Amino acid sequence: MPVRTAESAETGRPPRPAAVRGSRPAAGLVAACHPVPAAAVTVLAAALAAAAGRGLAGGAVAVVAVAAGQLSVGWCNDRADLRRDLASGRRDKPLVAGTVSPAAVSRAAALALLACVPLSVAGGLLAGAVHLTGVAAAWAYNLRLKSTAASWLPYALAFGLLPAFVTLGLPGAPWPPPWLTAAAALLGAGAHFANVLPDIEDDLATGVRGLPQRLGPRYAAALAGLLVLGSAAVLVLGPPGPVTAYGWILPAATTVTVLLASRRPASRLPFLAVLAVAGADVLLLVVQLRGHAGL
Predict the structure, then answer these.
(1) How confident is residue 266, by pLDDT bands cut at 50, 70 and 90?
(2) Measuring CA to CA, which residue among 153, 191, 186, 177 is closest to residue 271?
(3) What are the φ and ψ backbone dihedral angles of 181, each rounded to 5 degrees?
(4) Tens digit of pLDDT for each residue in 102-131?
(5) Do the Cβ atoms of 43 and 121 come closer than 8 Å?
């Protein structure tokens, strides 16, 4: 049920967030930044940087840049969704529960975005422009595209550009191989469909009609599975040379994981399954890139 105050019940105005409680706003900020996906993407960037040979200093700057971008996106998302979260009674959200103020989240998002700019261009102007394009796509999703049929596009673009941000910081600024970009983009699109599955009913009730919401839980879950499986297949079959034993196991394991997760489409299980598959993909990617002289 929506969280309504006496004033909002009498006037019909949207409910307001609860008063900020306690003296630990830092905990509220951490919870509001979407820590699990933010950490997952940052770890993915770290693995890519290590596999590509960015070095300790260059890799560290790239990882911190990605972390700053993810923090800005997470805080922007919670702040942009505040009105809808209030209407849906999302007491699990820190802004609705009152553990952090909207002003604090807005400031944190702006500061993280400002920090992301110099950190991104530290590896080169082209690399920085690529990363900031991905961050801008994520902000566009939060502020507008989330409610359109193109809701999948920012995810595909931001994930697809992440390998390029890492490799363009290498000497000679090489672009990543097309198979790596395609695998990352498919994984990002799959993550979008899996991430929204538990919230589809609330989203529709509050006017959010992205592509997963338009398809409905059943078809959105199926498409999420196909996209993630496609990402694993591209990662296995795209690189030159014979497929390793682990490479053959990955699509089979991905299929089993997706099928198990699809039995509970309204839970967080599909999204957690995507994160598990992403971890397996990263392991294969590190092995593959270490086995080749260059990208």
Answers:
(1) low
(2) 191
(3) -60, -45
(4) 999 999 999 999 999 999 999 999 999 999
(5) no
Q: Residues 126, 112: contact at Cβ < 8 Å?
A: no
Is 1's pLDDT higher than 80? Answer: no
**How far apart are alpha carbons 140 and 210 in whole angstroms?**
13
The percent helix, strand, coil of the chain (3-state, each to 5) is 75, 0, 25
> Is residue 154 predicted with pLDDT exceeding 80?
yes
Q: What are 172's two structure tokens?
A: 């000679």
Pull the structure tokens for residue 113.
């975005």
On the question of pLDDT at 289 being above 90, the answer is no
Q: Residue 230 has which token pair?
A: 């496609």
Q: Is 166 helix (H, G, I), strand (E, B) or coil?
A: helix
Torsion of Cα atoms, 124 then 174 then 152 then 113, to 10° = -10
- Identify the H or E element spanning 72: helix 56-80
